[in-house]
Amino acid sequence: MKECHQFTPSVTRRQWLETAGCGFGALAFQAFAQQISSAADSLDGLPQTHHAPKAKRVIFLFMHGGVSQVDSFDPKPMLKQYNGKELPFKGLDSLDIELKDKAGNGRVLDTTWKFQQHGESGAWISDLWPHLAKHADDLCFIKSMHTRGTSHGQAVAMIHTGSDNLLRPSVGAWVSYGLGTENQNLPAFVSVTPPAGHGGARNYGSSFLPAHHQATTLGHSGSKTGDVTIQYLQNPSARQDDQQRQLEMLNRINQKHFAKTQDSQVDGVIRSYEMAARMQGIAPEVIDISKESKSIQELYGMNRKETTDFGHRCLLARRFCEAGVRYVQVSTPYVWDQHGGLVKGHTKNALAVDQPISALLTDLKQRGMLDDTLIVWGTEFGRTPVAQGKDGRDHNPAGFTVWLSGAGVKPGYSHGATDDFGYYAQENKVHMHDLHATILHLLGINHKKLTYRYAGRDFRLTDVYGEVVKDILA
Amino acid sequence: MCRFAAFFVVLTTCSSTVYAKPDQAAKLGFFESKIRPVLVKQCYRCHSVESCKSKGGLHLDSRAGWQTGGDSGPAIVPGKPEESFVLLAINRSGEMSEMPPTSHLSSRVISDFEKWITDGAVDPREGTASVREKETVNIEEGRKFWSFQPRQTFPEDQSIDGFIDPKTPRAAADQLVRRLFLDLIGLPPTLTERQEFLRLYHEQSPDEAVNTFTNDLLSRKEFGEKWARHWLDIARYADSNGGDFNLTFQEAWRYRNYVIDAFNRDLPYDQFLREQLAGDLMPSDTIEQRNRQLIATGFLMVAPKMLTERNKAKMHLDIADEQLDTIGRAVMGLTLGCARCHDHKFDPIPTSDYYAMVGILHSTRTADRVLMNNVNVTGWTDTDLEVDEETQKLIAAHQVKVAIYEKELKQKKQRTKNTEKVSAGVVVDNTEAERTGPWRKSTYRPNHVGDHYLATDKGKGPYSIKWTAKLPKPGKYELRASFGGGSGLAQTASYEVKHADGETKLIIDQTTQPTIDGLWFPLGQFTFSAFAEVLLTDKQSGGAVIADAIQLVHVDDLKKEQPPQVASLSAEIKKLEQALKMLMANSPKLPRAMAAQDITNKRLGDLHIRIRGEAENLGRNAPRGFLQVASYAGLEQANISAEESGRLQLANWLTHPNHPLTARVMVNRIWQQLFGRGIVVTSDNFGLRGARPSNPELLDFLADKFVKNQWSMKQLIREIIHSQTYQQAAQTASEKDPDNSLFKHQNRRPAPAETLRDSILAIAGELDRESRNSVVGPLGMYAIETSGKRHASLSQTDSLRQRSIYMPIVRGAVPPSLALFNLPNPDLVTGTRAVTTVPAQALFMMNSPFVRKMAESVSAQVTQEAQPIEDVVQSLYQRILIREADTGDIALGKEYITQLMNENSKSRLEAIASFVQILFSSTEFRFIE
To answer: What are the sequence ranges of the domains in chain A?
Structure first.
């Protein structure tokens, strides 16, 4: 065994699986699926974690392109004072030439949006995010993020895999590897409309981890809502009873082969057909949001053109979580990169996601799921407080904001700070590696102990870095 | 170490003589009160003997610790704060790793450190012998490891079976013929081929059957199409970049076809390697050979690259790193990349060896072109291939023709310009006009005067602009305005003209195309005295108002203005431009390849070691050379001159008959293809952390024979297939040897992705056996756009019918029919594919239109024959599972098909198709026995 897994799957689950994998004959398709689904719910034997987990699952909301912190959550009065004037210190190297004056500082650009304090916590949120502002007391901001990579390619790889250039397993794949799935009929890691550019598949890939840890994807960032589904999940031309008969015969023929060979590989394939049949029974139901009430659909903004796409994706995330998926990523298309047209661009992008994200928080809370679900809202980097052109900002990996919510993090809390201009993370800096370490920690995993032996050495998500951000833990 | 020793002496001298005692006491006091507590609290956790940690190789719990310093050298230089890394780290200068990693020290503490260092860094801490012995890789010791040892040699009469002593009887004829076909060409035998094999097997002998068919299959082009794919796994081949910027590799197919061709021609493996690493530097006799060698270097080029990395020095290091790591794993089974940041933790590979080799690749031109006129985006340059004389002539003739056209065009344009100059009249550009409102500069419409024109933005007005022209003489002038013209503009732009007779208001439709020289629109003729004033406002506009320039031409000059030739000139120009466009569109194509070359700029040369692998953190120079531990008898010096990369020397070093690893690694790969398991099970890792050979003598025997047979891959394959060991029946592994590492039976192996897909196509009679050149032609510059937009063809790969090796391998969109069945991620070197059994594969077999369609095609073939169902089932078993169905099989098949027809009211065609799908999905079909 190459795999040096830190966890042992529970005996109960294995026993259960042995009894569950008894073939197709006995039960009708749908009933079978339901039975297994409810059996899965009652499974108490999660794999052993390093410590007691606070979160059972994670929803990672990825804003692709770089959301501006100084226009969203990190107000800086100095921007007003210096608007149009030269930044009084040196800006980042390797940013676009045109942005720089001779001294390399750039000219400050004030924000267009009004900031206000919200909730009892008094969190500063700009009017770019009116819906989210209502959840101020649920959010835990990290305003001192920094990361590697001034270009999207590097920074997107960094946030997804912990490496800016080398091919590494994605966060979700590590979680799947570390915790396995909560529901044997569904994969542990699902990525809804993953980014197609800037690394594409590697952002949800398993790299050297066993292939089944990679995400099951629904569509890609360019997909229309209707195309957001799992590939080959259904056979459009076969009736259910036809297919059941076919699977029964396949099983009989395969069992003959197994009887002859007594080979566990053959048995593995037989089981994969059984699991596929169960997944086929369950997943379409999970994906089918038409059964959600009208009020829920409207909560997510599915009745409005601007919010329907992302609302649909967020609703899918909740449904996957309910069904036992460990790690669900929902991504926006690559739209946040406002080198120019900041006002128009950020307005449009925030409009598309603000209500759906807020709805997700409301919905999870109503269902009591926010207690054991961790939500991470993030972007590959922030944007500069200095202007690019008249109405734009360049990439800023040196200081930006992410927020978390739900299981195990302090609600209504803000951690760390950037300098007076929102350029460099300054106080209680949190590197992307630290964020990864913290996510794993909340799931009950010690990031230093979750390792995988590949090409002669032990790899981990955080490489040789990463410190859990203890201050934000509830 | 030297540096430390010398320094230490100086320091002791200083402390005993220069510093007066009272001063010293104060300094000690300062250290004790200000410095030591900080060190203890902030630094010891990672930099002390007690914590057992010395991150970055640095100890800070003794004077000697910082004097010796870590990876970057002494950490504190007394009296020189600016050279003291500790200070640079804590004040977060950006030149060093920022320390402490999780908190900032206050500015007071930082100034304390600065003062302390300036004052000589007095430090009484004697420190246990915590001075780190610089660990060095012991090369001599390292050479004792099995894989670096010279190969053993064996007497001529040895054989594979002699080493293995196979214990299992020969496989049944049907199993053997299927295995032979799938292993050698990745396609199942046809009914006739099977019959012929069985005939030879029973009438002549099993050996005769195997020999005959082995020779036959090895000579088919399908052999290369099967075996090249294994090398493409190792070469992390793809038709697009992936990475951060998924550009299409339009020319990568040439490399893919080169590999297929190499296998089919049985190109000696050493030559195959040399061509891939340094083909561009090798002599050639013919144009064809020259081109082939150029194309071979695609091996270095097809890697995924981070093309938008803004730190280009880092990017070039990353690219060279990837290439070296690939060469290491592919050719030597070593993870050289591990030595980039520090000496290899397990294998005897010092960082200096890494930089000696990576310098060779760093001197190679891989990605050196600025793309999209953006210095942040890097591309590669395709290399022109040589063409025969005839094509050369054609191209030359074409170039001459183009040159003639271009010259004529240039002349005509110049003449037009000259003619126009006469009539320019008075022109006032927007830059000289007075304006109010936030006019936006724009160059979107090319027909404008000066650098730019001005445009309004909706809702941001009011706007106004006033041009004032000083006229050479009073009189009647034609007034013209320039505003680009075209859709989206104001249809009611309001102009006011002040002239000698008063004021005239004009409403102009700016969507009109300008009539004069494609630039000017006449507003009318007016009489002016000394000045002309024109005011444009956005008062009545609809769309954007454009303000560029005005022109005033005296009426007397109007006749002169348009000498008849101008009109005819512009017509001629138009004609010429069209002709040129046609000419370019039909130009004879010069074939180009994605090929490597030596670089000629300053990157050519040795590299400095990068401490901790960071691009800017320079260590000592590492002269280009090879891996010391794998050097062998007969190795000369690297001998790389300043004017060359050294790739040819590297290639020659790797392919020397005495190289301890190259032949071993390759014979192991070939063995693995035929048994599903290598003699060394970690086929890409022959290092300390890799597996040991389960039969070292056999490995050396095969390697030695391989080299002696001119590195012939076909010869090696033939030899293995002829062995009893290969021909044993497949069995389930015993408990005694669960991995079957001793090869006492054949392994039951899952059929690879390509074999599954190609077999299904072949059995259905739908396989298109033609070779393919580029299969990504329809894709544009981007294989997948960053926005996620992708060409429709990428999601329709299920409808393709060519052999799998010719499928488009776009990074991020590998065809699911292959990716699901473990076609490896093309970003990584993969000598051993993952074996997974996941529900997604089952879903594909159950639900994909591809499998259903193929099942229908098979059904259509067998239902035409009006046979009883029993015979149909028999025929399906022969076609699909390559064996006779037994009575039980036939009974099951018949039961199923009949029930579907009777109870589920399926047609005979549908019912049989459904059964075919079952056989395609069956475990028996998915394994090679």
So the answer is: 1-48+233-287, 56-221+293-472
